[in-house]
């Protein structure tokens, strides 16, 4: 009798599975829309064209400008300023691919309990700026123009009227264009620069002084930004570990460009919380631009980059430090030097870069910034 009951129970369970799966409350599967006249793919992962985090695409560079936004993602496919491995021109596409599993509909952060897409800001993906791959000077002017157009649009918020931009690099030279753009809206800003390299090299040193063209590259852009008056002398590097070329001159020159330094190994001594406090103290009371060279991470976590340096931070450590910067007035940011061709099949670099963008967006949503 007992065995007969068991058989019946098993049979009824099996039969139930054949007929229908239990519905999952709140989840509107695109499949459920089949048979209808239209299918809504908003927020659907792996569907439609690949935008960052499946955000809506807006053609921000056209003349119309009717679709308003508060924070724009902009790709900068540029890698002719790199001194190591090229390939960061494919970075914007790679970072978007790394963000495929992120959905604005289901983006609740386990640590903060927040979904940055469900707060006040309208966040969209502008696609990439069209940049020539044959002339750095022209490409940077094109990027300057793209930043200008996108940041000069009216924002969606009536209170916070300047749209802010997160740039997907591109090699690090592209940050120069972003800083030229932020200068026009906010004046000189403090830069929190996550990188294994200082990037303040004198163009006469890095580039060999052979030509002006050669001097504008991914290791000199912060020197140039300092020369152009775009950055405050309250800036700071984080994660530095690569050798300098000239001990006395390079480090002294770096300070002259406005930078203090947190080295990669300072994290061991200070702990992430100590690093957060040091960064916050340095930039206190100023507008902040956050630039993240993915080579701040150890190549074990981010092999797909132009000039990898061992002995770097883990992805978790970087995310902890970044998220700890909440409350700062972040007026723009970028993730650069992602060259997907050197990634492994598990895509650790592009996944990390996508998550870093999420942290940048959260900082910008946490602290809206009023126009001056
Ligand atoms: Mn760099």
UniProtKB/TrEMBL annotation:
Residues 1-16 form the signal peptide. Mn(2+) binds at residues 172, 195, 197, 199, 293, 295. Keywords: Hydrolase, Manganese, Metal-binding, Signal. One of its GO terms (biological process) is putrescine biosynthetic process from arginine, via agmatine. Its cofactor is Mn(2+). It comes from the Eukaryota. Belongs to the arginase family. This is Arginase/deacetylase. It comes from Aureobasidium subglaciale (strain EXF-2481). The lineage of its organism: Eukaryota, Fungi, Dikarya, Ascomycota, Pezizomycotina.
């Amino acid at each position: 009798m007992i065995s007969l009951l068991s058989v019946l129970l098993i049979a009824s369970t099996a039969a139930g599975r054949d007929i229908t799966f239990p519905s999952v409350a709140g989840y509107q599967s695109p499949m459920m829309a089949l048979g209808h006249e239209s299918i809504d793919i908003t927020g659907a992962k792996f569907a439609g064209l690949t935008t960052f985090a499946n955000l809506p695409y807006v053609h921000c560079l056209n003349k119309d400008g009717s679709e308003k936004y508060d924070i724009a993602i902009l790709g900068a496919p540029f890698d002719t300023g790199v001194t190591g491995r090229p390939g960061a021109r494919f970075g914007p596409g790679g970072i978007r691919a790394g963000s495929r599993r992120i959905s604005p509909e289901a983006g609740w952060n386990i640590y903060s309990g927040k979904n940055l897409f469900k707060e006040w800001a309208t966040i969209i993906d502008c696609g990439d700026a069209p940049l020539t791959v044959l002339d750095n000077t022209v490409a940077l002017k094109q990027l300057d123009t793209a930043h200008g157009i996108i940041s000069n649009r009216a924002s969606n918020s009536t209170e916070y009227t300047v749209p802010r931009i997160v740039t997907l690099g591109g090699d690090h030279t592209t940050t120069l264009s972003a800083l030229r753009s932020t200068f026009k809206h906010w004046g000189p800003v403090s830069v929190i620069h996550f990188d294994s390299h200082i990037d303040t090299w004198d163009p006469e040193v890095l580039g060999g002084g052979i030509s002006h063209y050669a001097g504008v590259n991914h290791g000199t852009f912060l020197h140039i930004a300092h020369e152009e008056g775009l950055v405050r002398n309250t800036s700071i590097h984080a994660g530095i570990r690569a050798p300098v070329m000239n001990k006395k001159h390079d480090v002294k020159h770096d300070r002259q460009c406005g930078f203090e330094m947190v080295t990669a190994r300072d994290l061991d001594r200070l702990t992430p919380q100590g690093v957060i406090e040091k960064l916050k103290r340095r930039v206190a009371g100023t507008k902040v631009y956050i630039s993240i060279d993915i080579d701040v991470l150890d190549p074990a976590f981010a092999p797909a980059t132009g000039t990898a340096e061992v002995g770097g931070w883990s992805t978790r450590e970087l995310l902890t430090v970044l998220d700890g910067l909440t409350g700062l007035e972040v007026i723009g940011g970028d993730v650069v030097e992602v060259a997907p061709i050197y990634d492994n099949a598990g895509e650790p670099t592009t996944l990390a870069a996508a998550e870093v963008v999420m942290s940048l967006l959260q900082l910008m949503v946490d602290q809206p910034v009023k126009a001056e």
